[in-house]
């Protein structure tokens, strides 16, 4: 059974991130243009809603 993932648009207006739920310790991926998912890199990103997401471990929201 497929899992429905939540999506957020980043402040660049193009990049989409996805996760089962956007909470600390949860896996977060970047959805590529061709529909693939890659782990969120370490660092900080911002959504269009100006929410900051920090990742201290590749692929995870912290």
UniProtKB/TrEMBL annotation:
Keywords in alphabetical order: Plasmid
Instruction: Quote the protein name from its UniProt record.
Output: Uncharacterized protein
């Amino acid at each position: 059974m497929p899992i429905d993932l939540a999506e957020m648009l980043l402040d660049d207006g193009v990049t989409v991130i996805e996760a089962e739920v956007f909470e600390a310790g949860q896996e977060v991926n970047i959805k590529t243009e061709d529909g693939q998912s890659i782990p969120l890199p370490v660092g900080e990103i911002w959504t269009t809603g100006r929410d900051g997401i920090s990742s201290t471990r590749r692929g995870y929201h912290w």
